[in-house]
C-alpha cells in the first residue's frame, strides 16, 4: 500500500495548500516520512474538520472508506468516555483522537520547530504528532495521562522508527524533575495555562497551544517565554480541541426559572456570540461561561459563572426587546452586554488584535494590540 499512501498524502497536501494551510516544505516531507495511516485506528469515528458527514469507520468492513477517512481533513476519534464507550459509535464524549491534518499542520507551522530543538509535547494521543516532530528533527518528550493510550502510542512510534520519549503523567504538571525545552507543543485545549510549561521553557522558547476560554470560541496561541519568567504572545486563529483532563468543566443552568428576575434587552443576543467579540469578553469576564442554543427559528443564550453562583437566559423574540431571565448575586447578562458594547466602542477589533500574557504567578491576562494594554475583569487599563 506504499504507492497508494504516497498518492493519498500528495492529494491531502494539495488540498491543504489550496486552502492556504500548508506552506512549509519540511512539513510536507514529514507527512511523507511518517504516513498518517500508521497511526490510525482500525475502527473509530470520523469527524470532518469542516463540512461533511460524521461516520463510523472500520477497516475490516470497508477498507476503501477507511483510507478515504484517514487521508481526509478529519479527526478520528480513538477513545470515548475515557475508554468506557465504543469510539466508533459516535455517541459518547470523545476523549482522545487522531487530530485532523489541517489542525496538526497549523500548530506545527506556528511552533516552527528547528532540527536539534528539545520539544515537550502535551497530549500524545496516537503518537502521530510526536512522530512528525521527530521527522522535523526535534528531540521530543511527549506526555499522556492515560496509560492505555501511552501503550498504544509507544507501539506505533516504535514501529514508525520515531525516537520520542513517551511519559505517562498529567501534562499540566510538566515533566517530572523539570526540563529546559525550546518549545512546548500542546494538543489539548486549556482555559488556564499551567505555569509549569513556562517554567520548563528556555527564555526565547515558544509554547503553541489551543486556548479555550470560558466564553466563546477556541483560539490558537503562540507564547514566547521572556527572561523574567513570563510568556507573551498573540491569538493566531481558531482552534477546536478536547480539553486537558484536569481542566474539564461543567455548565449548568436550571430549567426551572422560578425566582429569576425578568427584564428586557434591545441588544440581540446573537450578536454577542457571532460578531467576533468573544476574545474581548473572555478577557473582561474570564469566569463567565456561555452556551448558545439554536433551534429552528429560536435562539437562546445561556450564561453561568464558574463559581456556580449566578446564571442567565436571554431569549430572542420578534419584538423590540428580547427576554432576559437572571438569578444569583450577579447579573450576568448585564455584565456580558456591557463587555460587548465596550468592544463595540473600541471599533470592533478583530480577534487577531488580542493576545495573552502568563505571569510568574501563573496569572494570565488578555491584552489588545500591545502587551501593555491589559484588559481586566473590571475595567480596561489601556486607552
Automatic annotation (TrEMBL):
The keyword Aminoacyl-tRNA synthetase does not apply. GO terms for molecular function: methyltransferase activity. SUPFAM superfamilies: S-adenosyl-L-methionine-dependent methyltransferases. Pfam families: PCMT. Its main location: cytoplasm. InterPro entries: PCMT, SAM-dependent_MTases_sf. Its EC number is 2.1.1.77. GO terms for biological process: methylation. It is found in: Cytoplasm. Belongs to the methyltransferase superfamily. L-isoaspartyl/D-aspartyl protein methyltransferase family. This is Protein-L-isoaspartate O-methyltransferase. It comes from Actinomadura graeca.
